[in-house]
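Sample pair:
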Amino acid sequence: MCEVLVIGGGAAGMIAAIAAARAGASVTLLERNEKLGKKIYITGKGRCNVTNDCTRDEFLREVPRNSRFLYAALTAFGPQDMMAFLEQEGCPVTVQRGRRVFPSSEKASDVTKALTRAMNESGVRIRLNTRVRGLWTEENRCIGVITDSGEEIRADAVILATGGLSVPATGSSGDGHRMAGETGHTVTDCRPSLSAIETEEGWPTQLQGLSLKNVRLTLKQGKKTLYTELGELLFTHFGISGPLTLEMSCHLPEDFSDCSVTLNLKPGLTPEQLDARLQRELAEAPRKHLASIMPSLLPASFAAIFPGLCGIDSQKICAQVSREERRALCEKLQNLPVTVRKLRGFDEAIITRGGVSVREVDPGTMASKVLPGLYVAGELLDVDAHTGGYNLQIAFATGHLAGVSAAI
C-alpha cells in the first residue's frame, strides 16, 4: 500500500488526505497546530465562504494570474463537487448573494468538522502539534519528512500543503515556501493580497466607518486600466477597505508608483447629467451655503469635507459658486484620486500572492517537476483569486488532485 504524508491540516491538506485515503493509500497528516483548520475558522468572518457555485470557466475569470494552471484541478474537483462532498459529510450548504456558498449553519466549524469526520472515516492518521523541519530527500527524490524533534518519517509521496503567509496567527509561517525553496523550487516574491490599502491622503481617515455602496473604483497604470468595478467601499482609520478595495489589491503591480486610483461616487450619471443636477441644486438654494446642498449628493460626513477636497470653501453662497467651481465639484464626484501608500500587512490580508512557481508543478497531478515524490497544493502555489469563495476552492481542488495523484 502506498504511504502518503500530508504536511498541513488546512483546507488543502485535509481534502488531500481524504482523497489519497479514498484512493487506497495509507495516509498520515502532520499539523503543527493544536487543532485542524485554524484558518477555515476565520474565513467569511466565521461563516466560511467555502466555494462559489459557478462554472469552471466563470471561476477561471476570477483568477487574475496563472488561471490556466487550475483547469485540470477544477475539472476534476469543481465547486459543485465540493458542495456535494460537504452535503454527503453532513454539512448542508446554502448559496447566497453572488453565488457564494456557505454552510447552512453559517458556522465555519461545521466545515472543519465535516473534513475531520471524513478523514477519520477514511482511516487518515492525524498527528497534531507536529511541525515539519524539512523534506527528507535521497537520490533526488522526496522519501519523507524530518520533524522538529528530529524524527524521520518515510513515505512514498509527500504532499506539501502548509499554506501561505497570510494571517500568521493561524500557523502560516512560510515553512512550506522555505522547504520548497530548499529542494530547488522557484518561490516567487510573496505579498499580501485581498488586502486593505493605506492611502497617502488623510481625508479617508476622517470618514472612518463610512461604507459606500454602488461606487466605482478604478486602477490604471499609465493609460492602461488594470481594474474597474462597481461595488462597496469602506473608509478606515488608515485608508480604504471593503470588497472593492480587497479585489483591486489583487491587480496592483509590484511597483505601483506609476499607478493611479480613482473613485467615482456617482457612476450612474453621465457627466452631463451630474452637472445638470448640481446646477439645479445650486439654483434651488441660491442664498444657502454650499455645505447645505452637498448632503443631497453624499452622506453627511462626506458632504461636510467634500468641497474642501475640491479647493472650494464649503461656506460659499450657492449663487456665488462659479462655473469652474461647479465643474471641479462634478469632476471630483466622478474622478476622486486616492493614492496608494502601501498594502496592509499579512496579519490582515486574506490571501498570499506569489509562492511556488506553477511552471515547476504539473497541473495535471500537482506533482513537483523538480523533486519526484513531492506534490504541492493550496495557498503555497503562485495562484490567487478574487473574494467570493474562489481561494478556498483553489485549495480544495488542488489538494484533491494532489491526494488522488499521490496515491497512485
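The mean pLDDT is 96.
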